[in-house]
Write a structure and sequence with these properties.
This protein is an alpha/beta fold. Helices cover about 40% and strands about 20% of the residues.
Length: about 150
C-alpha cells in the first residue's frame, strides 16, 4: 500500500502517490489528512486535487483524522493499515521530511517493511536550500522537530 502523509498544500505528495499507483506499485494510496482547512479534511481536498489532475478517484482511500503531528498521524495510519494486513508500504512525503517520518514509522512498526518516497516541495530543494528564505525556514523547523524527537519530546 502507498501512504500519503498530510502537510503538503501544493499537491506534490498526492500527485506523486497517484503516479505510483498508475505505475503499478500498489493498487491504492491511503491518504492521511487532518481536519481544519475551512471545515474540510485535508485528505478529501487532496484526493479531489488529484482527480482534477487526471487521476481516478478509485486510486485513493481517504483517512480523515485529527492528528497534529507526524507521531500522532503514524498511530492513525498504522491502525488503518492493520485492517488491510499491510506488510509493505511506500510512504510519500516531502523531500525534507523523509528521514524523520521514516524513523517514526519504523520505530512504531518494526515488523512492517517501509520505503520512503520523496515528493518534491514547492520551496525546498536539497541543492541550494540555503539560498532561499522559505527553504531556510523549512530546514530550520524540520531540524527542530528532529532534535525534539531525539530528545523524546
Amino acid at each position: 500500500m502507498i501512504v500519503v502523509l498530510a502537510g503538503d498544500f501544493y499537491g506534490h505528495r498526492i500527485l506523486t502517490a497517484g503516479d505510483l499507483v498508475r505505475r503499478g506499485f500498489a493498487p491504492k494510496a491511503l491518504v492521511s489528512g487532518p481536519s481544519g482547512a475551512y471545515g474540510f479534511y485535508e485528505s478529501d481536498l487532496a484526493i479531489q486535487f488529484a482527480v482534477h489532475h487526471g487521476y481516478p478517484e478509485s486510486y485513493f482511500v481517504a483517512l480523515p483524522n485529527d492528528a497534529r503531528s507526524t507521531k500522532a498521524e503514524a498511530d492513525d495510519v498504522l491502525a488503518a493499515l492493520g485492517k488491510w494486513n499491510a506488510r509493505r508500504i511506500d510512504i510519500v512525503t516531502s523531500n525534507y521530511h523523509t528521514r524523520r517520518a521514516g524513523n517514526i514509522y519504523r520505530a512504531k512498526a518494526p515488523g512492517l517493511e517501509i520505503h520512503m518516497v520523496a515528493a518534491p516541495d514547492e520551496y525546498f530543494s536539497a541543492q541550494g536550500w540555503w539560498k532561499d528564505r522559505e527553504a531556510r525556514k523549512i530546514f530550520l523547523v524540520e531540524w527542530m522537530k528532529t532534535v525534539a524527537a531525539w530528545l523524546g519530546m
